[in-house]
Every structure is written in C-alpha cells, then in structure tokens.
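Narrative summary of target 7.
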Amino acid sequence: MPARSDPALRAAARSSRRAPARRSTAKRTAATRAATRTRTSARPASTRRSAPLPGWGDLGAGQAGLAREPRTPVRLLDRVPPVRLVALIVVGCLIVTLYVGHVYATRATAADLQAATRENLHLHLKRERLRGMLDRLTGPAVILNRAAALGLEEGISYGPVIRLDD
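Modeled conformation, tokenized:
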C-alpha cells in the first residue's frame, strides 16, 4: 500500500504504539489528521460499510422454515431422579434432627452449668461463714480469757527454760 510509505503515517503509527497516558483530540497535529483521512480514503470501496450490520432477528431468519416445538416448562421434581430425591430428603431430615438434638443438649448443659455455679457460690459463702466462726473461737480475746480461767498469769517475760535430762 502506498499510504504506509507516507512519513506522516509512519509518525502517526509510532505515536499510537507509544500509548500516551492521556490522549486529547484537541491537541492532534495536522499530520495525524491528514494521516487519518488518508487511511480511511485509502480503503477500497468493497471494505467500507455500505449496509447496516444484521440484527438478531436477521440472524435467525435462515431457520424460519423449521417449525419449533413450543417449550413447556419442566418442574423441578420432574428433573430430579426419585432415588436422589429420597436421599436428599433423608439427609435433610438427619441434619434437622442433629440440629434439634444439639439445641436441646446445649440448653441442658447451660442449665447444669447454672446449677453448678449456684452451688459453688453457696459453698463459698458457707466456707467464709465457718472461717469467721473459727476465727471468733480462736481469737486472742477468747484465748486470754480461757488462759486466765485456767490460772495462768499474764506477763511480759516468758517462763524459765526447762531442760530435760535423759
């Protein structure tokens, strides 16, 4: 083709290969406009579009002579084989049964946990109450009064050292 030997066309082809980040139609040079005009006018008349492209209706027109059967909708149950349908129903029932059992087991476990927590609190309170009673029975005021009742005298010094001979 003689249009490719044109220097303006070569420059336009090189610039289109570079693919600049932004391309503005207002900044095109006169050489690229001329190259574009020469490319479109250089096409033979047989390659130019003279008639509109066919639409979807035109594409199916070749089979218009064939009679199509009207399509009846097929139900879902008609498409699934009976054995597979029974298997799906059994699996679904099994899953629902396991879920319901899990829910009841979780509720029973939660009730047991709450009862154990309540019992633990009750035992902690009882332990603290008994510890308080022991502290009151073995406190210094009670011990001093009982020692005085037994005849022991209160003093600062400890008694003499007692040595045992074997």
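DSSP finds six helices and no strands in the chain.
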